[in-house]
Amino acid sequence: MYADGVFPTATGRAQFFVERYQACAEKTDTRYPLALTTGRLRDHWHGMSRTGNVARLFGHAPEPRLAVNPNDLSRRGLKDGELVKIESRRGAIYCLTEASDAVRSGQVSLPMHWGKRFLGGQHSAGVNTLTMPAFDPHSRQPEFKHAAVKVTAAELSWHLTAFVARDGDETALLDALQPLQGDVAFFSSVLIGRDRPGVLVRAAHHGAPSAAWLESLDRLLGLDRDMALRYEDTRRASSRRMLIDADVLRAVRLCGSRAPSKAANGCANGWSPKSRWPRFVSCCCRPPPMRRADLCCRARSCASASMSPKTPSPRRWAISPGEAESAPRRTAGAAQLRD
Fold first, then answer.
1. In 10 A of CB 106, how many CB atoms?
2. CB of 232 within 8 A of CB of 338?
């Protein structure tokens, strides 16, 4: 371009424009003390209209995460991987945290690529829910790279994690999941999978959504099939579903009043459809402390969970009163299927 040295000006010569420095349009203060920056990811481009359709490109940054300095997390009583509420003067969204020394104290970072398709919810339009409408008067470039925000605990009582393997239609599933965003406060869906593509779904809300909402999600994930293993605890609004085919884990949906454990999150992010399901079950969600009487009572009720004739022995799904005290570690896999 301009190899001949002629520019489209009256004189044909280049003209330099010099503008005086101006600070960011929005400053941090005591109410919004953190500076949010929205940078780029290595493997994605702008709104991810193309790169967002390739599961392998999510390997570098598997899902939306707010990078926070570890000192800022500890000051706010937050933990790495915790769901938080990010709020600016224009709106609020929910996102998982990621402790990172790459951002200095007083700053947080959420990549610009995470739009509503990947980071949504009832009132979320993705990361630009938080950004400024200001723009440069000359270049017309918007000031999306800086906004004052505050970060607090999410305080959502119901959480869901689900994932499924797909054979070539994973992007269609991603699109089909979008209407479900309108009924929950937080909804995230991304592509996953190293050996075969799949979809990872996370959601959270102030309470359990309607049964119809869960049925719609299960239908999209293929978890409405009769052969799916199921566990329901209506008192705790807790539910588990797993689809196993030829001893290979194909789909999982975990939801209830407790957020998934760090081990379950790790399995979801690094999951392959070739994974053996007992190993996944053993690290899904550690059950809360409970009395022996409660454990035995719940073990008896768990024995009624629906089982397919082709599924493993019910002993993987129930704990007898004698086993509850004598062999808690050996039966950990079954305990993981209950809150």
1. 12
2. no
Give the global pTM. Answer: 0.75
Taking the C-alpha atoms of residue 85 and residue 131, their distance in angstroms, rounded to an integer, is 15
Neighbours of 245 (CB within 10 A): 15
Dihedral sign for Cα atoms in the order 161, 102, 147, 138: negative
Could you give the CA distance from residue 319 to residue 90 in angstroms, rounded to a whole number?
A: 51
pLDDT digits (tens, 9 = 90+) for 42-77: 666 666 666 655 666 666 677 889 999 999 999 999
- Residue 36 pLDDT > 60: yes
- The whole-angstrom separation of Cα 45 and Cα 36 is 20
Tokens of 47: 């709104």
- Amino acid residing at 302: C
132: left (phi over 0), alpha (psi -120 to 50) or beta: beta
Give, in order, the Cα–Cα distances in Å from 228 to each of 103, 200, 310: 43, 18, 10
CA distances from 330 to 313, 319, 324 (A): 15, 10, 10
Distances (CA, A) of 169 to 8, 172, 176, 187, 199: 48, 5, 11, 20, 10
Diameter of the chain by CA atoms? 93
Sheet of 158-165: strand order equals 119-120, 186-192, 198-205, 158-165, 248-256, 238-245, 229-233
CA distance linking residue 291 with residue 55, whole number of Å: 44
